[in-house]
Amino acid sequence: MLDALSYEFIQNALIAGILVSFIAGIIGSLIVANRIVFLAGGIAHAAYGGIGIAIFTGIPIFLGTSLFAIVAALFMAIVTIKQRERVDIFVGLIWAVGMAIGIILIDLTPGYNVDLMSYLFGSILAVSRDDLYYMGGLFVVVLFAVTFWYRSILAVSYDSEYASLSGINVKFFYTLILILSALTVVIAIKVVGLILVIALLTIPIYIAQNLSSSLYSMMIIAGFIASFFTTVGLWLSYSFDLTSGASIILVSAFSLMLFMIFSKNR
Amino acid sequence: MQTNRSSPVIQIENLSFTYDKDLVLENINLSVDEKDFLVIIGPNGGGKSTLIKLILGINTIQKGSITIFNYSSNKSISSIGYVPQNTNVNINFPIKVIEVVMMGHHSHKRSLFGYKKEEITHAMYILKQVGMEEFAHKKIGLLSGGQRQRVMIARALCSNPKILLLDEPTSSIDADGQKQIYELLKELHKKVTIIVISHDLSVVLEYATKVAHINKKLSFHDLGSMQKELNIKGTHICEVELLQMLGKCKC
Questions:
Q1: Chain segment A94-150, per-residue pLDDT in tens
Q2: d(Cα B48, Cα A155) in Å, to the nearest integer?
Q3: Domains of chain A, residue spans
């Protein structure tokens, strides 16, 4: 295993996995606390439309996907603020329509045959140096936003009605959380796939929630747990020649099972 | 309605509210005086919560007016401490009691990251008032319903309000806990005006000074005089008797 670390693509994969894990720890905590896991899943799948647009028009994939995901997040923010009880219908809508747009546009792109699987389960071993810069940049943005607005984000996530009464702009922070989720989902799609991002945004969070007594400690603990899963999953995938994304998910799911048995017996 | 020595803290005049073409509140007039302990009762769907939302400025006023300390309602939220009905929201959320209480600090006074020393001192002082100081660093999800309700009252008290407004404060609490909450409110009543929405008449009657019954329209009862007349203070009466009594009453 150690000699594998000398390959640049393995180094990049590890750095990417850990960066994504810590971003997912922070954003995933917000997603779970705000009960918008399904909504984040919808944005993740809708983002596939952005991949299609990027490939069809020839703009960089990260850029195209990010813009499309932000549009989807804004759409969902408006819908949620206006008609909270109908959210699930619109999640289903963007989920399906986004993917359909992506697939049709890729069909229409001459001579380009993209592998859908690599977006579902990611291609962590193909992470480039530029991808790492993009992820590092997002990590800084997320860290800055959450640190700067910690108390408002905490108040909105815990009890949005009360937050609004105490003078916090709930709509702004709700939209901010959705946009940050969309951006997180986008980098994770390239690296670990859009199926894995949903697992990363929920499994480590669930464990961390039971181990922490404050939101920020939950964010940090979830980051470490997710990094552990990613590293172990990568190692398994390298050693036994398995799909990396699926390995990471199964490591997470197995650990979650152990955790549940263990914490029940305690 | 009685004439007052001082001007009322809340003055509601000719208030009507329609929701989806249904008239929810019709021509409500109500004045709450300083140091009142007002209980608002009425059937589900009778408009209690709508009235509260209008007072708090969550719903916008369509017709009529609400004046709080001589300002129109949406400008004086910080003078009202609000305890919402459902305190079981987000029970698994990782948050400490003291952090919940500090959410009651009004937003422009908040520091960005972390908590100022005086905020923590103030929150601890408030927690002591509601008898919860030893729970300050516990996770909110580990508390019982009654304890959590005290924390929510502490959060409402954090901005030093002159009025405390509680929506069904004991709906999800066992009998012992209910008694404790009302004893706490009785204690707090020495300093603030209290408005409680409740459907549990028998418990409330012991503590209330005024009762307003809302079912689209509002009827008002000053309990002070009635209690003397009927000599019911402190005794438990069933709700049917009480409703009959309130129905006959012309005050």
A1: 999 999 999 899 888 887 666 777 777 778 888 888 889 989 999 999 999 999 899
A2: 26
A3: 2-265
**Residue A263: band (very low, low, confident or very high) from pLDDT cuts 50, 70, 90:** confident
Tell me if chain B has a CB within 8 Å of the CB of A218.
yes
Q: Highest-confidence range of B3-7, B8-12, B18-22, B131-135, by mean pLDDT?
A: B131-135
Which residues from B are below 8 Å from A33, CB to CB?
90, 93
pLDDT for B2 equals 43
Q: How many CB atoms lie within 10 A of CB A160?
A: 18
**Chain A neighbours among B 67-126 (CB < 8 Å)?**
77, 82, 84, 89-90, 92-96, 99-100, 103-108, 110-115
Residue type, A75: F
Q: Could you tell me the CA-to-CA distances from A140 to A43, A127, B17 in Å, in that order? A: 22, 19, 48
Can you give A99-161 as a three-state secondary structure string?
A: HHHHHHHHHHCCCCCCCHHHHHCCCHHHCCHHHHHHHHHHHHHHHHHHHHCHHHHHHHHHCHH
Angle between helices A215-240 and A203-211 (to 10 degrees): 140
Q: What CA–CA distance (Å, rounded) separates A227 from A1?
A: 17
The superfamily CATH assigns to domain A2-265 is ABC transporter involved in vitamin B12 uptake, BtuC (1.10.3470.10)
The answer to whether the beta carbons of residues A184 and A9 sit under 8 Å apart is: no
pTM of the full structure: 0.84
- Average confidence score pLDDT of chain B: 78
Residue B127: closest CA among B184, B58, B75: B184
Which residue has tokens 């006074």? B109
CA distances from A216 to A29, A174, A178, B228 (A): 9, 18, 18, 55
Q: Check if the beta carbon of residue B35 is closer than 8 Å to that of residue B193.
A: yes
Q: d(Cα A98, Cα A52) in Å, to the nearest integer?
A: 9
Instruction: Sketch the domain layout of chain B as residue ranges.
Output: 10-248
Is the confidence at residue B227, as pLDDT, over 60? no
Residue B54: pLDDT band (50, 70, 90) is: confident
Residue in chain B nearest A167 by alpha carbon: B107
Tell me the chain A residues in contact with residue B159 when contact means C-beta distances shorter than 8 Å.
166
Residue with structure tokens 């039971």?
A: A210
pLDDT at residue B17 greater than cutoff 70 = yes
pLDDT at site B124: 92
Structure tokens at A182: 């969309």
Q: What is the pLDDT of residue A266?
A: 63
CATH superfamily of B10-248: P-loop containing nucleotide triphosphate hydrolases (3.40.50.300)
Note the pLDDT of residue B120: 87
